[in-house]
């Protein structure tokens, strides 16, 4: 599938436990760009077999509008992964956009999922290669291998930071996901991880997604943490509660004034360069000099705004 088709809107990625029919029904009407039905940590071990069936039925019932429809399976160190993938994709593969693989540690794990999806697509007569992969980086091994993970399959669409598991995996001295660990007062303790993920994603034309903020009643805190990822260039973030949705969509959309300015830069650049018969590389917009690099920066903001319907 072409890169552009893989770049689905993902400002807000709503987590919904696959075991909760009530939450699944509610999620259909919420303004999230993506919904992911969870078979992993939001689903107790004994609830997983029934949750697979609930998820298949929910996808096939439809009603998801333009939302990107994703299922998070269990990670490959468990005994559940293959059944998750086989049951969900055989049962609802035509109504599913991506499988999210948590705690990815190596490129081989992504290759396993790619091959398994191909087998199921062939068996079921689905279009081969249509279902994408979202890879969650949640431990040190995943992070050091993130470049290989990002290029392990053309199905990979996103690299996701899983801060809660990541913090546990590196023994970070904090219990508040996304907030700075007490005692670390020389910068942002997440900067390296976020940048590492962002570089692997961008080098492979993938989207970079930030994980959850668990203090669900603290919308200001959500905005602060989401704002950092958005400022670096991340495309979206997880949402655990409907109360975080508006803040998330706003944070990952450009401000109206920035969007308008970006469109002005593109118009001005187009006008001045075409006026000079393609021989002029830079132009002035008010007091600002614009050139090919500013055109590219403006295009990033304009594309985000256009995708958000601005
Ligand atoms: C998400 O899965 C996380 O561990 O933060
Ligand atoms: Mg996790």
Oligomer: single chain
The number of domains is: 2
Task: Tell me the CATH superfamily of the largest domain.
Answer: Phosphoenolpyruvate-binding domains
The run of helices and strands is HEHEHEHEHEHHEHHEHEHHEEH
Topology:
Elements: H1 3-6, E1 12-17, H2 21-28, E2 34-38, H3 48-61, E3 68-72, H4 81-92, E4 98-101, H5 107-124, E5 132-137, H6 140-144, H7 146-150, E6 156-161, H8 163-169, H9 191-203, E7 207-210, H10 219-232, E8 236-239, H11 245-251, H12 256-275, E9 283-285, E10 288-290, H13 292-307
Parallel strand pairs: 1-2, 1-8, 2-3, 3-4, 4-5, 5-6, 6-7, 7-8
Antiparallel strand pairs: 9-10
List the keywords.
TIM Barrel, binds glyoxylic acid, 310 residues, 10 strands, 46% helix, alpha/beta, 8-stranded parallel beta barrel
Compact description:
This protein is of the alpha/beta class.
Please tell me about this protein's structure:
Helix content is 46%, strand content 15%. It is an alpha/beta fold and 310 residues long. The chain contains 13 helices and ten strands. The chain folds into two domains: 7-252, Phosphoenolpyruvate-binding domains (TIM Barrel, Alpha-Beta Barrel), CATH 3.20.20.60; 256-308, no CATH class. Strand 4 (98-101), helix 5 (107-124) and strand 5 form a beta-alpha-beta unit. The radius of gyration is 20 Å and the shape is globular. The protein has helices spanning 3-6, 21-28, 48-61, 81-92, 107-124, 140-144, 146-150, 163-169, 191-203, 219-232, 245-251, 256-275, 292-307, and strands spanning 12-17, 34-38, 68-72, 98-101, 132-137, 156-161, 207-210, 236-239, 283-285, 288-290. Helix 3 packs parallel to helix 4 (81-92). The model has no long low-confidence stretch (mean pLDDT 94). The chain has an eight-stranded parallel beta barrel, surrounded by six helices. Strands 9-10 form a two-stranded antiparallel sheet. Bound molecules: glyoxylic acid and magnesium ion (MG).
